[in-house]
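Data deposition worksheet. Section B asks for the primary sequence of the deposited chain exactly as it was used as input, without tags or linkers unless they were present during the calculation. Section C holds the resulting structure in token form. Section D is free text for depositor observations; keep each observation to a single sentence. Incomplete worksheets are returned to the depositor.
Section A, Depositor: J.P.
Section B:
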Amino acid sequence: MSRTKNGVVHSRKRKRVLRRAKGFSRGPGTLYRVAKEFVRKAGVYATVHRKQKKRNFRALWITRLSAACRLVGIRYSQLVPALALAGIELNRKMLAELAVADPKAFEAVIDKIRPHLANPSKKAA
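Section C:
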């Protein structure tokens, strides 16, 4: 039985790892053994951060909405239940975009939900 060698497979595997490590400085970018570890760790970070990205954006939208709500005289904690009662199905992302890009439209949404607020208060002059 003839002996099989693994040269082609190994070099492809090595090339794939080093391609993924392109841009890493010094050893991790050029040395296979170190690159293997760094590429594996980079993959782990990428997976974790894809989850965190969703969290971070939601927090950003809530912060923007909270600031916009304070400008029109209500609290964020009043906004969300009032939207549900009014039957407005805009998500936080769209509401935050409205608040930043088109404050008049955001105020129109707030005016629609004012009757549904638990403690309605007019905008401070």
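Section D:
The first helix runs from residue 7 to 20.
The helical segments are 7-20, 27-30, 32-72, 76-86, 92-101, 103-113.
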